[in-house]
Specification:
homooctamer, alpha/beta, five-stranded parallel sheet, four-stranded mixed sheet, 16% strand
């Protein structure tokens, strides 16, 4: 670790008489805090050289978003993912990153460099077609983090038979993501079936009593399915992140 | 219909010269409004002579509740059901109605006189043991209204297999009542299976994100299961009422 | 029932030595779950060959909605109803289903094939003109399910006299639907008059304290009118479904 | 007006040379602000010498409440009303005001001295027995302010016929107070019937979806009945105040 | 009263043998309910021949709004007021009612025929410029109902001195309307100064913690100013109605 | 898998002519649903013979809770954990399970039989002393599921230096649980430091603006710390479950 | 003090016989209230001749906003700041105040005349780029009030190391402003580090569980960091005001 | 500063050859983070040797609270303040700290050692008697931090004249604290009068629409009074802290 080496260097300088204690103290004061101990911990965001950076386009102008992307790439970032990116933001990003890929439905655009090798399987299941944008944001994020993602959309819950096709994939998942709005009953049903951690993503799909996703959120938090944890409303990005972290770390399933 | 006959009698009295128009007008003014046209409509509360009256004990002193029961019985009421009745209220009611029956868990006490013949089947399903008080309030109410009630408690949803034992009864139900708190996913699952109207009763069971039943309520209202309607939180009484009304009117199932 | 016959056929194949046990097991594994027991229950969505399918256009692109309609019709669906369908969605649906009918106010478009014979009477009452879209969504849905629907709009409650014209129809209803926003007092008043189950539909009509329909919803849930159950805010579709289910099953009124 | 005269007196003292300008300025500084202009306006709280003072016992110890009562009486207050007064507070108040009257149900205790002559009629209507405490707090307050109060309790709304007995009194009211919890539909119905201003008091009666009175409050605020204004949840005191102010000022009804 | 006379006529017809009892009963059945007893009560909406009718344009198309106006005028209505009327609605209304007057800021358009003579003084006070549309809706409504209205806009509360100019008018008011958003402190301050009933109108002015007017609403409901009642958020119409009803009935101020 | 073998046995019986197809069909009908396909999936709740069962004592009487424990143990359950167990419930459980262990602070009592071997490290961190009950419920649950748990209580966030002692343990964790109420800032800070999945547990600690834990919940859901997912308010049980599932599956950390 | 002198002058006029008492009383009546005692207190808004006036453009038309600015300048105002000013409002203001400066991001336009000399240091820190508009509104306001402002944007909290660069400035601040949305954890972290009062500004940045800033607001209010007080959501103006008031009054830091 | 000296000592040890670089690195690793850079910043909690420590008794057992107090005193703390301390907690604390002082109304107990000299004036104003506990918690806290506190209780706002007695003290305040529940209008009024920063403390006093203090909180946040910032509901402790920090730093008022 660079910091440790740098510190060792400074201390050896003192040991050798090349530096005085007060020189070193001054050096300490001018270093950013991270150089004094936190940098190592931050390293988990950079699992490897090609680590994914992320930019939330909401609340930024297209120009701001593009400038950040350009700066990150220039600074040597691996992949960069821009979320909640409308058409104008995507155009602005493409201008600074011609090799960017994008997904209109997920409102995402990204540059993928030095993507890590695939490891771990995340199964992502959505209740309805309208949950698609959130599901695919999660998928893109998890894939950039190096997970293999299997997608089942529009599974519903009122007709349980549609779950049939999902069961075999649940069996081989290292982590499951359930994307559902409205009453989010799918999360409880899948959570009762899946033998692995399940990440629920409530969506703001629906009107009236759906309350912009708060009903789905609360329903997921209340679920008595074992092994279910939840991210924020419509937060596909967060779900993709935690699911990939779980899946990539998972060892082989105990038979 | 009594009112029509009474009016006819008055008018005939005028016709015969036994009453003057102003006599009749005075009589009109002294009648309660219901005698001027609404009484007939109110009759649905009295399906037969032994019609059930109901008293909500919440917000009343034991003495008030007992006094109302006594007055109703004296006035010739058929059955009288007191809900949300704590031990003291039940004691007070027993003092005025020695033939009262009670159910401690449902916090209910009732006098059943001239109960109507059984007609129609209501299947009542609860998610957990803690939903019992609400379920049994619904059951007692529906039975007093003349429905046959079949109860399945503690069905859950995280383990779908527990639904197995319920399926045959769902097949023969005229109406289904689902009592569930927390995420109320059971309502969606049963609503997707039952071929008849389903009445959901959200319960205030659970803590934190259950929000005193609001999560269950909203989840039921958001359910995409066809044929599901909902009553208020913990309102077993209301569910029993509407379910019995549906079931008793139901004709034979089309094969 | 098809499944039972199919299973019997498989088992007879084993009995006759035409199939081995492992053949049958494999066949089991490849069937969707519904073929293993749930399909029969799902049948309530298809009361007859011309069963109505429904598509919620909200959250779907016009193209997605139209593609689903086309697929359903191709798969032999009877009627298909698209709700929350704006002008563009309706245009897209007409392109794939030239025989579609539509209702601009209800934002609905539908294909009606093999509609079931009329049975049961649903009376639908709205508080104000602005509740019209929700009421008509309910009406269209209930008619497609085979109920006879009688509509009274703009009944209000502050002027009770307007209820006068509705009373005779309440008398002959098998189920009543009340569509009301704001304080939804109409639901309590009608619920106190109608001798049959009443389905309340809170609407998001109104501003300020109407809170997007939550006030109407809560008021309906709190109503002490007997026999009232509620669907979600603006959920005309759900109300039409459950009301038709109740009405079609209703036997002749006991005199 | 006393203040004007006092000022005039001071200024004349200056004019006559009896007071120096700085004497007057000092006098100004030592006067409470109200003596500098607001006092006159404050006078509405003291319609006459026996004006009612009020003490909210909630959040005060019995001793604090009693001490305030004693101080007010000593200062020459006319009537003093203590609201939200539990048994201990009432005992403490009786100790300092032996001529106090009290109402257990309304949790009120008061001393009435020099009560104004009766003027104006307030009709107070409640939906159920449980609304009684709030209704009677309103009644006591309005009576202390000099209004005549007519009470109709437990009128309900699901059975409109019960309104019949109230109609004649609505005809002669100068102001109507409607006390109702749950869905508060009674406010809309009475508001549609009464030809005078109606003050709604939402109560916290009920459970679940009643939301501690917020549903009743919002429903009243949404009512389309003309001439309805609202006070806070359970605020019988406020309703009694404003209703008495309206009724006492009312001239004879235009025929 | 017309109804009484009509009934008397019918009964005399029976008395004279011109009508049979069954004729009369049939006639009863065909009359709207209001003809059976409620019409008289409804009369308060028509204080005189030129009574104001009102149409809420929100949720109605311009054509619907205009058609209702045309129908009301044709039916002989006195004044008709259309609220929440955008430019298109106002254009449509002008086409059917060329003598309509309008107020762009209040989003109101109205026809005033046979306006009642002025009686009673309503003082209307707003906290800020942005409360103007609500204040003027209240003003127009109250004026159409025959009250004299005095307006003070932009009074604020953080600088109490601005209240100075309002004080003399508060002195001569029969009713005061306070229009305020945000923290609505103006309502408490004015409520503490005015010796007459005060109607508070919370407005949705402000952002963030103003919560669309709910903060102002709740603050007004919590105010300890005596004699304050409240209407719904932004409900200038309701405030104008109840204030005019109070003011017009007010007798001369007791000196 | 038992079910497969059982099915195979049945089919072989048919093949051999020992069973008729209708015998087998009847047998199918009498099996619980889980025997028809879901049982295998349910098996994840029983990772091994000594699988933990759980009972939520809230909403159950002490007798009910104890009876369920007795039944589970009799049925051969491995460990059984009773949560939200007050003193009376714990006494009742001890009576049926003398070898039960308990933790007063966590309000938990449990029987641990055949506990799985330890695997995976969960680090649990709480913000304050008052979060202890929730943290220890999580700890007990995770330990019963076979995880090694390291606890750091009262870490706070306003004094970041207290985090210092936690850092080395964060380094070796397979999963981190953060238990925090109020503003839950600790979750963001730890989430920014820990290189593994973090499970946040909002607690209802605090008053006023803490809103019973909803502030902590929402703050955690909004956190921009990567890899954070959340369970319900005060849901130590849920956090312990999902954290243990993640940790036990985790392979060796990539260096 | 001007008022005192004016009063003294008047009184001396009476003393000298130049004014009669009634002249003076009349003069009193015609003065705004502030001239009778409050004006002095109001003076805090005018720290010096060039005091800043402020106009909230929200809810005002561009013309209204510009007219107010023109009137204020004409009346001799020092600086005038218009907040929430969109492009059209800024254009309208520039037309009446050609020397106005503006900041598009902060949606602010202002005229600065006679700006006070700089005194006191306010350090303003934001969590993310999207918080910029609020931060800069605060900055402009504080600068117009005469404070020196140091800005650190996009500090975040998930990566604590970014705080490093801020620490030296926190050391020299007289007041700190933290602008943050979402979970607002930055406020707790900075509040734990800064040795001076911290003003938190929750922002409406974020979606879903951010709840339009209410989560950030509640989190800040719950923070256990000492010395933290909060202004309304997105209220950069308010934060700039109070922070400048604190900073300008601050004496030299005790070493 | 101790840390700097310690670091210097270590480095000199290296310089002198008494310590090797790896010795020092190991020593670094074992130090709490604060020793690596944050300690200095934390020092603001210890303005002097007798710095106040605080313990929130809510959620802690009396024994836990007392043990923490004992530990803090033993560790050499100056003053220690325990808030939200019921009678049992206060008894337990007295047992370990016989020199503790307490205030029953404020539910506070504290040990004051080496209290700093008084500096700066905080004026604390409450709206009603019931706000007393919160006001006195604030007062005690501020006094322990070394501020002079002037208290005005029960000032109200409906009768503005009561403010008169407060005005002179507002003039000499360095910071004002306003404690108010319900509509909290007092905060706006005082905020409009006081020429210094005002800290608002919303209280949970009141019922119904007061919503446990949320109405007061939101009203304060919406206030347009300049220079008002807010702490959490009932958070007297927080208000006392920030007010004392502001007041003690304040230089002499510019005349």
């Amino acid at each position: 670790m660079a910091l440790r080496e740098e510190l060792e260097g400074l201390l050896e300088g003192v040991q050798k008489g090349e530096l005085s204690p007060s020189d070193v103290l001054e050096r300490f004061a001018s270093l950013p805090v991270r150089d004094l101990g936190f940098a190592r911990l931050d390293a988990h965001r950079e699992v490897r050289q090609g680590a994914p950076e992320a930019v939330l386009a909401d609340g930024k102008t297209p120009e701001q978003a593009a400038a950040i992307v350009a700066a990150l790439l220039e600074a040597g970032a691996g992949s960069v993912l821009v979320t909640r990116a409308g058409p104008e933001t995507r155009t602005a990003v493409r201008a600074v990153a011609p090799d960017a890929q994008e997904d209109e439905r997920a409102r995402a655009i990204w540059v993928a460099r030095g993507r890590p090798e695939r490891r771990g399987v995340v199964v992502m299941v959505s209740a309805g077609t309208s949950d698609g944008p959130v599901l695919h944001e999660a998928r893109i994020r998890a894939e950039l983090l190096g997970a293999e993602v299997v997608v089942h959309e529009d599974v519903g819950v009122a007709g349980l038979h549609r779950l049939g096709a999902v069961l075999p994939d649940l069996e081989r998942a290292d982590c499951v993501v359930v994307v559902a709005g409205m009453d989010a009953a799918l999360a409880s049903v899948v959570g009762g079936l899946a033998p692995v951690p399940v990440i629920g993503v409530p969506t703001s799909v629906g009107y009236g009593s759906a309350q912009g996703g708060r009903t789905a959120l609360n329903a997921m938090l209340c679920s008595c399915a074992a092994g279910l944890a939840v991210v924020g409303i419509d937060d596909g990005f967060g779900a993709g992140t935690v699911a990939a972290m779980i899946a990539r770390r998972a060892g082989p399933r105990a038979s």
